[in-house]
Amino acid sequence: MPTTASHKLVLPSDANHHGTLYAGAMLRFVLEAGYATAWKHVGPQANLVLRRVLNMECLRPVPVGVVVEIQGAVVHRTSAYLVCGLVGMPLGPDQGPWAEALLGFAQVTEDGKLAHFPHDLPPVEHPAGEAWDRLAGRLRKLLRLR
């Protein structure tokens, strides 16, 4: 399963009073990575809007000056809605992910009405790995709640 990689440098303007990544900046990073993931999945005909932040967790502090990598994959799709799973890749060799998130995007027309995705999109599967398995389990629970 292909993933989309996004990279961001954590700047002082992204930091909280502890000198680590502020939650609002983290949301911006994750949202941009999620949109890039969804857009690459749908292709140039994508006209996506964020519908829902299903889940976002900061698992480790991220200091200023670090370049973070966020891997994204589409882990669920209906005819007009998809969910991107996002994993903040480990900052060091013996660490786990620094973040995990699930973001839902809807495909819309130019006037903002719900639209169907093209029929020839690639199949949806979550990538292999412990973090992706956790996200898939979390998504199954969240989808059952609705």
Indicate the overall shape.
globular
Average pLDDT, all residues? 94
Report the end-to-end length measured between terminal Cα atoms. Answer: 27 Å
CATH class, named: Alpha Beta
Number of domains: 1
Q: If classified by CATH, what would the architecture be?
A: Roll
Instruction: Quickly count the helices.
Output: 2
* Low-pLDDT runs: none
Assigned CATH superfamily: Hotdog Thioesterase
- Measured by DSSP, the beta-strand proportion falls in 25-35%
Notes on the structure:
The mean pLDDT is 94. The protein is globular. The protein has helices at 23-42, 130-145; strands at 4-9, 48-58, 67-77, 81-88, 99-107. A five-stranded antiparallel β-sheet has the order 1-3-4-5-2, sandwiched between helices. The longest helix is centred in the N-terminal third of the chain and has 20 residues, at 23-42. The protein is an alpha+beta fold and 146 residues long. A hairpin with a 3-residue loop joins strand 3 and strand 4. The chain has one domain (4-145): Roll (Thiol Ester Dehydrase, Chain A). It has two helices and five strands, in the order E-H-E-E-E-E-H.
